[in-house]
C-alpha cells in the first residue's frame, strides 16, 4: 500500500523568495518519487524524480528535492521564485514492484503555487 | 516530434450520450494509462494497459471502457453509465517496467 500527502493545498510566495512544497509518502516497498507541474488546462510535466540513486535530486527550472527516508519526505524547493513558477504541483509515489510488473502511481492532492510580484 | 496527443482538447456532451476520447503516442511506449482529474482530488486511475489487447481496471473504472488494438492508441469511452463525467482527462504512457509516466495535454469533458 502507498499514499502521498501534500501539506498545504495553496502556497503563496513573493517573487524571489524561497519555494517549499511539502510531500510525505508511505510505501511498503522502496519508493520511486516524482514531482510533476501542471499549468492551467495542460497536462503534467515531469519536474524531477527519485529512483534510489542520489538523495538530492535536481530537476528542471531550478527545482530540487531531497529524499529523506527517516522522515518519509520528498519536499520540493527552489531558492528564488519566479512569476512563471505559478502552477499546480503534484507529488507522486510508485512502489518498486521489481522487474516488469506494474506498480501503481499514486498522486497527492496537489499544491497550487501563487507567486506575487 | 515524439509525444502523446489527446483529442479533442475540449468536448461537450449531452447527458445520456457516450463519447470517446482519443489518446495516441509515437514514443513506442508499451504501457498506457487514463486518469481523471477533479479540482482538489489529484489524479485517479481509470484504466491501464501494458500490452496490446490487454487492459486492467484502475480505481474508478465504473462507467468507462477502453480498447487497445494498437500499441500507439488507447481510446477511452465515457458511457452514459458514468454518473458525473465532467472532468479533465489525462492520458499517460511509459515503457513496460519503467516507472516514469509521461502525460498528454488532456481533454476537458463537459456534460451539458
Fold and architecture overview:
The complex is a heterodimer of chains A (about 120) and B (about 110). By secondary structure, chain A is mostly beta strands. Chain A has strands at about 1-5, 10-15, 20-25, 30-40, 45-50, 55-60, 65-70, 75-80, 85-95, 105, 110-115. In chain A, the strands form 2 sheets. In chain A, strands 2, 4, 5, 9, 10 and 11 form a 6-stranded mixed beta sheet that branches. In chain A, strands 1-3-8-7-6 form a 5-stranded antiparallel beta sheet, with no helix packed on it. The mean pLDDT of chain B is about 95. Chain B has strands at about 5, 10-15, 20-25, 30-35, 45-50, 55, 65, 75-80, 85-95, 100-105, 105-110. The interface of A and B includes residues 51, 94, 96, 102 and 105 of A.
Topology:
The complex is a heterodimer of chains A (117) and B (112).
Chain A: E1 2-7, E2 10-14, E3 19-27, E4 31-38, E5 44-50, E6 56-58, E7 64-68, E8 73-78, E9 87-95, E10 105-107, E11 111-116
Parallel strand pairs in A: 2-11
Antiparallel strand pairs in A: 1-3, 3-8, 4-5, 4-9, 6-7, 7-8, 9-10, 9-11
Chain B: E1 4-7, E2 10-13, E3 19-25, E4 31-37, E5 43-51, E6 54-57, E7 64-66, E8 76-78, E9 87-94, E10 102-103, E11 107-111
Parallel strand pairs in B: 2-11
Antiparallel strand pairs in B: 1-3, 3-8, 4-5, 4-9, 5-6, 7-8, 9-10, 9-11
Amino acid at each position: 500500500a502507498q499514499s502521498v500527502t501534500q501539506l498545504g493545498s495553496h502556497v503563496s510566495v513573493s517573487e524571489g523568495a524561497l519555494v517549499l512544497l511539502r510531500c510525505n509518502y508511505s510505501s511498503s516497498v522502496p519508493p520511486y518519487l516524482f514531482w510533476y507541474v501542471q499549468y492551467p488546462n495542460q497536462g503534467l510535466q515531469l519536474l524531477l524524480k527519485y529512483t534510489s540513486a542520489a538523495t538530492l535530486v535536481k530537476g528542471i527550472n531550478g527545482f530540487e528535492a531531497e529524499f529523506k527516508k527517516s522522515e518519509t519526505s520528498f519536499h520540493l524547493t527552489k531558492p528564488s521564485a519566479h512569476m512563471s513558477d505559478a502552477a499546480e504541483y503534484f507529488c507522486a509515489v510508485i512502489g518498486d514492484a521489481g522487474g516488469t510488473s506494474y506498480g501503481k502511481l499514486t498522486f497527492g492532492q496537489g499544491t497550487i503555487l501563487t507567486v506575487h510580484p | 516530434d515524439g509525444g502523446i496527443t489527446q483529442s479533442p482538447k475540449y468536448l461537450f456532451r449531452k447527458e445520456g450520450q457516450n463519447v470517446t476520447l482519443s489518446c495516441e503516442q509515437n514514443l513506442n511506449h508499451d504501457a498506457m494509462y487514463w486518469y481523471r482529474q477533479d479540482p482538489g482530488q489529484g489524479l485517479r486511475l481509470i484504466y491501464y494497459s501494458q500490452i496490446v489487447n490487454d487492459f486492467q481496471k484502475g480505481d474508478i473504472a465504473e462507467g468507462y471502457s477502453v480498447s487497445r488494438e494498437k500499441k500507439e492508441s488507447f481510446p477511452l469511452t465515457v458511457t452514459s453509465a458514468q454518473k458525473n463525467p465532467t472532468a479533465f482527462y489525462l492520458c499517460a504512457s511509459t515503457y513496460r517496467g519503467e516507472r516514469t509516466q509521461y502525460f498528454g495535454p488532456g481533454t476537458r469533458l463537459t456534460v451539458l
